Amino acid sequence: MIKILHTSDIDLGALPSFTNDFSDTHHQHRLATFNALIDLALERQVDLFVVLDHLFFGAIPDSEWLDAVQAGLLQLEEQGITVLLYRGHTDEGGEQAIDGLERYYVSHNGTAPITLAIGAETVNLHLLHLPLSRETTPSSAIPCESLVSYHIGILLMAVSGTNCSNPHYDFLIHHKESIQALNHHYVAVGYRHASELVDDGNVLALCPGSPQAIDFSEKGPRHCALVILDQQRVEVEKIEIQQSLFDQVCIDISECCDERDICAAVVALAQEDLVVQVELVGQIEYPLTPSRIVSQCHNMFTYLDIVDHTSLINSRYLKSMAKENTVRGKLAQAFITMNTSTNDVDQRRIYELALRDLLHRFNAVQAENSGAEL
User: At 100, phi and psi to the nearest 5?
Assistant: First the structure.
């Protein structure tokens, strides 16, 4: 029996793509995720530890990340675990700069599989390139001296030149026939976004995705893969590994009486390790200040972002204001008229935001003059 733990796109040193507000925390979570992978490999007593695509985010890694990686991989070696690193494009460019890791890296230029003897068994690791059907020899055609020999495909999407910018594009399904034709026991795929190819209950190929999200396209639990090979079966286990969980949540606040109610709804989501983008929707009867909600709730999350998609223009609040023979009453009438005269969603949102800006300005003037709010 052979055990393989594989992961992809650890990206040590990466920053969140949408904000710098929790960069230091995110750095530490990525490093903690790497350390969790090392601990898991030791705990499960795997034979082979494989990292696909980007181990580091930059071509020349910071000494903190490099020292942590060297220490972690050395722990694995001391326990007899073989380590293989398959580069993505970024790591390739920094090959000369990553001193101390050269012995782990696998060249993209070789066509012959890497063959490892583990006890009385062997595992053959085939670096694959798309299109599979033209460039790859089926494992059944490869001679082997061992009585028990396994063939594992390694497919790096970044190196294969495939355009995978759409996280919803399932490249494994589109290449199912080619993968089946390889007759490999299993194909490990390196790419940011998770994907799985199953046939008749058997996992043919798996991309666990990055073990730690970098943006909300990678929301939900993040995994690594533990593959167990024996003569009867190939068993694949996805193991949750992330240190911070990214998620997007939509809350309808139509029934909330005020911002305190909204804060209570947001706080109900609270998790210390949660990076969450909360979309607020629904009809409201009062001007809303998202930044105030964030300031009151953000300490209960790793990071909290509020996206306000609520509507004030059709509210009873504004219709009542439009009846006033005042400047703000005339403005309210104008906004209601403009909003009903178009079906363009984007244009209506522009009116909505402009209305709120004017109301906040009125509030500021009113508060300065009389201490009262609208």
Answer: 95, -10
